[in-house]
Design a protein that fits this description.
The protein is 73% helix and 0% strand. The chain is mostly helical. It has one domain: MetI-like fold (Orthogonal Bundle), CATH 1.10.3720.10. Helix 3 crosses helix 12. The radius of gyration is 23 Å and the shape is elongated. 39% of the residues are buried.
C-alpha cells in the first residue's frame, strides 16, 4: 500500500528551481537579450498613450518630414508621426499575439488532452486537425477575414484557428507518453477518477511544452497579423499596424526610408525577442539538454 501511494503521488515533472535561473541565464545570454528586447517593446507599448503623440493626427503641411528631435522617425505621407504610429502598431501586434496565444493554447490543450487520453475520440479529432493543417495558414486566415469582415476579433479568430492543430498534436503526444508512466497507471489502478488523473498527473506535464509552443504561436501570430495588414486583410487602414504602415509607406522608400524601416525594424525586434525567449524556455524545460549539461 505504501508503494502504491508513493507511485500515485509521484511528481509529474521536475520544474527548474529558481536558484538555477542565474546559472542558466549566464550559459544562455540570448535569453537575457530576447527577454530584454521583448520587455522593452512591451513596456513602451503599454505606456504609449503616456509619452507618444496621437497616431491619428494628420498634418497636410508636414508630410514626409525627416527625423527630428520632435518626431524621432519623421512623418509619413499624410503628416502623421511615424514614431507614435510605430509604438501603437507594436501595441496592437502584442495584443493580437497575447490573445491568439491564450485562445490557441486553451483550445489546443483541451483537444490534445481529449485526443491523447480517449482512444475513441483520437482518430476523429486528429483527422480534423490534419485537415486544418493541410491548409496554408495565411490563406486560411485571409479566407476567414474575407468572409467575416475586418476587425480585431475576426482577426484574432482567423489567426487562432490555424494555430490550434499544431498545439493539439503537441499536447496529444505528451499525453500519450505520460499516460503510460508507472505512477499514472498506479493512480488508475488505485481507483482514481479520470478528472483527478487528468488534473494531478496529465495536465502538469503538458505545461512546459505548452509554454514553449506559446512563444512560437506568439511570434507566428505577430507575423501573420503584419502580413494580413500588409495585404489589406487585417485591421482598418487608419488603425496603426506595423503591417499596414509598411504597406502604405513603401512608395516613399526612396525619399523617406524611415517610414518603412521603423515599423519593419520594430517588427523584427519584437519577433526576435519572442523567438529567443522561446528557445530559452525550450532549453530550460528539456530534460535531455539538462542531462547533457
Amino acid at each position: 500500500m505504501t508503494l502504491l501511494s508513493v507511485s500515485i503521488d509521484a511528481p509529474p515533472q521536475a520544474w527548474p528551481r529558481v536558484s538555477d535561473l542565474p546559472r542558466f541565464a549566464k550559459r544562455h545570454p540570448s535569453v537575457l537579450v530576447g527577454g530584454g528586447m521583448l520587455a522593452l517593446v512591451t513596456i513602451m507599448a503599454i505606456f504609449a498613450p503616456v509619452y507618444a503623440g496621437n497616431p491619428m493626427n494628420m498634418d497636410p503641411f508636414g508630410t514626409l518630414k525627416p527625423p527630428s528631435s520632435g518626431m524621432w522617425f519623421g512623418t509619413d505621407g499624410l503628416g502623421r508621426d511615424v514614431f507614435a504610429r510605430t509604438v501603437f502598431g507594436a501595441r496592437l501586434s502584442l495584443m493580437v499575439g497575447a490573445m491568439v496565444v491564450a485562445c490557441a493554447s486553451l483550445s489546443g490543450l483541451l483537444i490534445g488532452v481529449l485526443a491523447g487520453y480517449s482512444r475513441s475520440f483520437d482518430s476523429i479529432i486528429m483527422r480534423v486537425m490534419d485537415g486544418l493543417m493541410s491548409i496554408p495558414t495565411i490563406l486560411l486566415a485571409m479566407a476567414l477575414v474575407s468572409l467575416a469582415g475586418s476587425g480585431l476579433g475576426i482577426l484574432v479568430v482567423a489567426i487562432t484557428i490555424p494555430q490550434i492543430p499544431s498545439t493539439a498534436r503537441l499536447v496529444r503526444s505528451v499525453v500519450l507518453s505520460v499516460r503510460e508512466l508507472p505512477y499514472v497507471e498506479a493512480a488508475v489502478c488505485g481507483g482514481a477518477h479520470v478528472p483527478k488523473v487528468l488534473w494531478r498527473h496529465i495536465l502538469p506535464n503538458t505545461i512546459p511544452a505548452l509554454m514553449v509552443q506559446s512563444a512560437n504561436i506568439c511570434a507566428d501570430a505577430i507575423l501573420i497579423e503584419a502580413g494580413l495588414s500588409f495585404l489589406g486583410a487585417g485591421v482598418s487602414p487608419e488603425i496603426p499596424s506595423l503591417g499596414n504602415m509598411i504597406s502604405g509607406s513603401r512608395l516613399y522608400l526612396g525619399i523617406a526610408p524611415m517610414t518603412v524601416f521603423a515599423p519593419g525594424i520594430w517588427l523584427a525586434v519584437t519577433v526576435l525577442g519572442v523567438n529567443l525567449l522561446g528557445d530559452g524556455l525550450r532549453d530550460l524545460f528539456d530534460p535531455r539538454l539538462k542531462r547533457r549539461r
